[in-house]
């Protein structure tokens, strides 16, 4: 559940910290007090839109932090898979820092993308606002709701369908590309023959280019190398060079070697130096003997390098890539040479892939229709609880003309709230207030199958009052027995059901306006209910009615 919300420097909020609790958390306040800012802040921390013009003080950073406490380790496992560190006691900290130039999102202190925040947030919290219940006007949303309710069975079939559909579309796309006529295929084959011959005639060999480059550099720089080696050879010459001086040093040593046994190590080192100098000279002489070459060899090496580079520049850039292209072009030519057989096999593969996709689609449709029967029954019951007394509700399926990665189903909710009237699409019937209640009914049903612990309802009271508002409050109470619920409301009937009642106020101090929030005591909650119901003048009778409303709500929780 959501333990704590911390907001700094955002719109009317200077700095605000709220500790939320289990069950039903109600937030009330005057219009314009800043209730929407709280929802925007939470949405922002979850990856939603927050812009620099929302900063209270543009010279300072804004910050939103959400601290969650999870019942199990599901989210911890997801974080571990994403390489994000865990916190103690199954807690998860989401934060977003907004500056005048950019924003940074973090999970448990590690910087992440907004997309990753949204992915993780789906396990933590479900926010329902006016935009979401308006989404019920789009039938595509209805199928999403059904699949979410159906759970594992449908999700596993959809995963299987995704793979089969990917294979099917590959064959379909290949088949659509094979529309060239005979003349075009012959042109393609002739061109492939030319390219294959061009690569093969180059007789490319792995490693040859590197060896030729080494030889070419040696021959092209032969004069400089020869001059340098001659100079080294002269320096080591046994006559006037260092070799001769080393030989004289060795002869001098042997003239004194018998005078002191301790001179032995010097003699060994002089012999080693003499041997090394002689070996080096012989190696240089041998290299110089090999250094001689025919000018025609340089020409042939250069010509061969040009031939290799001309082909590789045209077919991939390297010998390896050119040889890989050669194999691909041979396969393509073979396909064209046996085109009828290839096309027949492709058509069979396409037909088989389509058959498999349609079979999985049929299984998906069956699973959805079974789940829809249960979903419709539960939603119908929840609607009855929300004061839809004579409601009829169902889900209608239609088959698409072609399979998709999401199956072949078009599905939509149909409803009538008046006896004797025919069922019609939900988008054509429901008013704004009805939509909010229908979404609440759906949420109450989905809450039983979802692992998300925290639900937020904003504007759930749109277009309702009286007995209907009382029914909505009772439904929120039922949901809050198994989930943490945060609800922003303007209605006393809903606010009275609060397990924890927060008041959001706009206050002015030292010429600055700020949004503040406080947790109300039982008596303060009664006075807030009186303000909501009583308007400008709050009489003792209004207060007494508010106290009675709170008492009745308490009794309803025990039922």
Number of strands: 15
Q: If you average the pLDDT, what whole number results? A: 84
Structural class: alpha/beta
Which ranges are low-confidence, i.e. pLDDT below 50, for 5 or more consecutive residues? none
Instruction: Assign a percent range to the helix content.
Output: 55-70%
Round the Cα radius of gyration to an integer and report it.
41 Å
SSE topology:
Elements (H helix, E strand, L loop, with lengths): L1 E9 L2 E7 L4 E6 L5 H11 L16 E8 L4 H8 L9 E8 L4 E5 L2 E3 L1 H8 L3 E4 L1 H5 L4 H12 L1 H26 L4 H20 L6 H13 L1 H14 L6 H15 L7 H28 L3 H20 L4 H19 L1 H47 L6 E13 L2 E10 L7 E2 H4 L2 H16 L6 E5 L7 H15 L3 E5 L3 H4 L4 E10 L2 E8 L2 H13 L5 H19 L1
Parallel strand pairs: 3-13, 3-14, 8-12, 12-13
Antiparallel strand pairs: 1-2, 1-4, 4-5, 5-6, 6-7, 9-10, 10-11, 14-15
Helix pairs in contact: 5-14, 6-14, 7-13, 8-12, 9-11, 10-11, 13-14, 14-16, 16-17, 19-20
């Amino acid at each position: 559940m959501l333990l704590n919300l911390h907001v700094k420097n955002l719109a009317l909020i200077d700095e605000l910290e709220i500790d939320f609790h289990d069950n039903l958390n109600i937030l009330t306040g005057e219009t314009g007090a800043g209730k929407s800012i709280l929802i925007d802040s939470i949405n922002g921390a979850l990856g939603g839109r927050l812009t620099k013009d929302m900063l209270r003080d543009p010279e300072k950073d804004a910050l939103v932090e959400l601290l969650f406490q999870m019942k199990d380790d599901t989210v911890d496992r997801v974080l571990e898979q994403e390489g994000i560190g865990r916190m103690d006691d199954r807690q998860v900290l989401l934060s977003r820092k907004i500056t005048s130039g950019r924003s940074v999102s973090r999970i448990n202190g590690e910087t992440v993308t907004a997309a990753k925040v949204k992915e993780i947030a789906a396990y933590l919290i479900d926010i329902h606002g006016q935009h979401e219940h308006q989404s019920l006007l789009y039938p595509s949303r209805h199928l999403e709701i059904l699949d979410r309710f159906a759970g594992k069975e449908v999700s596993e079939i959809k995963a299987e369908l995704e793979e089969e559909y990917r294979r099917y579309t590959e064959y379909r796309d290949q088949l659509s590309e094979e529309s060239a006529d005979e003349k075009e295929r012959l042109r393609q084959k002739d061109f492939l023959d030319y390219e294959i011959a061009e690569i093969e005639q180059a007789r490319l060999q792995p490693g040859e280019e590197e060896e030729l480059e080494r030889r070419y550099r040696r021959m092209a720089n032969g004069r400089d190398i020869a001059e340098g080696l001659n100079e080294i050879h002269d320096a080591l010459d046994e006559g006037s060079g260092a070799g001769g001086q080393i030989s004289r040093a060795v002869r001098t040593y042997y003239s004194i070697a018998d005078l002191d046994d301790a001179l032995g190590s010097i003699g060994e080192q002089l012999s080693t130096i003499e041997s090394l100098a002689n070996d080096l000279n012989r190696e240089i002489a041998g290299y110089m003997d090999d250094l001689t070459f025919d000018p025609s060899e340089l020409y042939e090496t250069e010509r061969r390098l040009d031939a290799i580079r001309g082909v590789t520049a045209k077919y991939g850039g390297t010998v390896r890539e050119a040889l890989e292209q050669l194999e691909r072009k041979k396969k393509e030519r073979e396909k064209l040479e046996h085109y009828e057989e290839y096309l027949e096999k492709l058509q069979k593969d396409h037909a088989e892939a389509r058959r498999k996709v349609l079979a999985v689609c049929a299984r998906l449709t069956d699973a959805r229709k079974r789940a829809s029967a249960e979903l419709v029954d539960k939603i119908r019951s929840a609607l009855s609880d929300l004061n839809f007394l004579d409601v009829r509700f169902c889900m209608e399926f239609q088959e698409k003309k072609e399979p998709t990665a999401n199956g072949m189903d078009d599905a939509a909710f149909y409803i009538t709230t008046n006896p004797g009237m025919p069922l019609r699409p939900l988008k054509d019937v429901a008013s704004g207030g009805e939509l909010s209640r229908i979404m609440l009914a759906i949420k109450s049903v989905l809450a039983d199958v979802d692992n998300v612990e925290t639900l937020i309802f904003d504007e759930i009271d749109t277009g309702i009052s009286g007995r209907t508002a009382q029914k909505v409050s009772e439904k929120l109470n039922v949901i809050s027995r198994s989930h943490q619920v945060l609800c922003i409301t303007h209605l006393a009937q809903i606010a009275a059901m609060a397990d924890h009642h927060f008041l959001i106020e706009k206050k002015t101090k030292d010429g600055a306006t700020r949004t503040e929030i406080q947790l109300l005591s039982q008596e303060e909650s009664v006075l807030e209910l009186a303000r909501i119901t009583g308007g400008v003048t709050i009489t003792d009778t209004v207060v007494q009615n508010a106290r009675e409303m709170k008492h009745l709500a308490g009794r309803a929780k025990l039922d």
